[in-house]
Amino acid sequence: MKNFNIQPYFEKLCDLALEASKKIMSFYGDPYGTMRKKDGSFVTLADHASEDIILKKLKELTPNIEIISEETFADNPITQLQNGDFWCVDPIDGTDGFVNQNDMFCINIALILNYIPIFGLIAHPPTEKIWIGTDKEAWMIEKNQSPQKLCNTNPMKAPLKAVTSTHYTPRLQHFIEENQFQHAQKLGSALKFCALAEGQYDIYPRLSAVCEWDIAAGDAILKGAGGCILDMQGKPVTYGNDGFKTKPFIAYSKSPSNPFV
Q: Is pTM beyond 0.85 here?
């Protein structure tokens, strides 16, 4: 799909994210709505309710664009895309954080065109804060406030501040120490990309594969703010892969002249 202008859809996309956020929070603290998937990870009634809202609204907005969403994919895995254009959705990223009520969870919505994320939206249900971005610009929107443009222009300086997943492995610790990063924070969900886009941290290393719906929205937002996600060969992460899995990568708050590879 060429020359698709996402900007006229911004308001409706933010509205659907807020609607899904309110629905998610209506389940917050409910101990009876939590189950385990085949892989052992949590899934909740809130995941399904959020997904229902998002998928319905996206189909109304763009009926001809395919949607890949985590819970629907878990029930009915898709082996082949119609083409390289699709919405990539995680109705609750960081379900562990939702279940444990630590607020480290969010909604991820990305639009992939020709296998490249050209739009990303991340919403934080507890605060109703939203981050949106394209390949050219990114903004943070707080409740009842005007959008704040995100633009990382200051050069990264050593020691680089690293934000990591809450799953902090010995291998990751070795990687951080070997590269002399300052391990500043463990943070769950795609909120790590928002913190990078805001310039709170410099780098997010991920040494194992993740699902595309975990990072696609953050990828677009980071690009708009001046950062990027590169694989361990220093190349942009690709989407629409088998099983919708990514390779290990490093996310940067500002595009580096010399990536760590």
A: yes
